[in-house]
Amino acid sequence: MARGIPPKLAAALELCWSGWRSKRKSYGLTEHKFVLDFPVQRHWDWRVAFYLYLAGTSAGFIFLELVLRWMNVIKETTAVWGMWLGLALALLSLAVLFDHLGPVSRWNFHYAFRRPRSSWISRGAIIVTLLVILRLVLLLPSISGFDSLPWVEGSLASDILRAMVLLLALAFMAYSGLVLSSWNAIAFWNTPMLPALYIGYSFLGGIAALPVIALIVEGTEGMKALGTDLWPFLLALLLWNGLFLLLYVYGMSRATLPARESVRRLMHGALGWSFWIGVVGIGLILPTAIIALEMSNLLGSGNSDASILLVASVATLAGGYLLRDNILRVGVYGSPV
């Protein structure tokens, strides 16, 4: 029978990893008095929101980097930088996931791969691991000394590997929403609209990150050249995700009482400012206005123009994180306790 890491070694690793942190609070029932209200889930905090954000954005980034490079929309240098960034974000999301397992248990993270039939955590860990491995395998022929491999660019094997990576990236995008929608106890999450919304925001995050990479790698002119092809798609995704977010919130406002309570907390509660200013204002309206002005040739040109477009991309990325964080924070359980 397989055994985990020795307890003493796990404790020593835990001391190095999180010994400097403050003592973790328990959010169990021992800290809650009897109240006639819908209890808010507290176990999934900003770290899980950060993990879901990284998972979706990295998958969307890898997907678009492959497709746009195949279509010759982005240059090879930008594609390579984008590929490494996408892989780094995917690995970082996996590290955040294992960190959330808690003290000592995180050092036996290999157990997370054992139950793909029943655990969404296992499915996510397997998907992202395969995604990273296959993307690296697809990269090998471009490295000196490996150019004789049978899956060189343009070969049938290369196309098959690329299709597998795209499917895994799409699955990882959907996973970030499916892991929440499978939670029956929280009505606001338990809907197929949530995975669809997360997929849309994953594509939005991926396409918003590409101009930032182009600006860093190729400079202002490279960003402007890439933007000529990307701005219409970015604008379309902003409008689509804004519409789908409206439909999602409206649908939940007409659903069960716990779902309606989540909507009330999201729009009018303590998180109302974060939703309206962060998710809607900064994450959707601001970049939509900037991209619309750019496509109408009303922004001008030069470094100031590039800076404004950079603001639009960063605002879009920030809105994607705030969306995940707000949805987690307004999740309430179905029955008062």
Topology diagram in text:
Blueprint (H helix, E strand, L loop, with lengths): L6 H12 L27 H25 L5 H24 L20 H20 L16 H26 L11 H61 L3 H12 L3 H24 L7 H27 L8
Structure description:
With 337 residues, the protein is mainly α. It has one domain (31-329): Formate dehydrogenase/DMSO reductase domain (Formate dehydrogenase/DMSO reductase fold), CATH 1.20.1630.10. The chain has nine helices and no strands. The protein has helices spanning 7-18, 46-70, 76-99, 120-139, 156-181, 193-253, 257-268, 272-295, 303-329. Helix 6 (193-253) crosses helix 8 (272-295) and helix 6 (193-253) crosses helix 9 (303-329). The model has no long low-confidence stretch (mean pLDDT 80).
Q: Which key phrases capture this entry?
A:
Formate dehydrogenase/DMSO reductase fold, mainly alpha, 337 residues, 69% helix
Provide a short characterization of the protein structure.
With 337 residues, this protein is mainly alpha-helical. It has helices at 7-18, 46-70, 76-99, 120-139, 156-181, 193-253, 257-268, 272-295, 303-329.
Shape, per Cα inertia axes:
globular
- Tell me the CATH superfamily: Formate dehydrogenase/DMSO reductase domain
- The CATH architecture designation is Up-down Bundle
* Low-confidence residue ranges: none
Number of strands: 0
N to C succession of SSEs: HHHHHHHHH
Biggest beta sheet summary: none
Into how many domains do the coordinates divide? 1
> Which band does the percent of strand residues land in?
under 5%
**Mean pLDDT across residues:** 80
| Multimeric state | single chain
Provide a count of the helices. 9
Distance between the termini: 41 Å
Q: Return the CATH class.
A: Mainly Alpha
Question: CATH topology, which one?
Answer: Formate dehydrogenase/DMSO reductase fold
The level of helicity is: 55-70%
Cα radius of gyration in angstroms: 22 Å
> What structural category do the secondary elements indicate?
mainly alpha
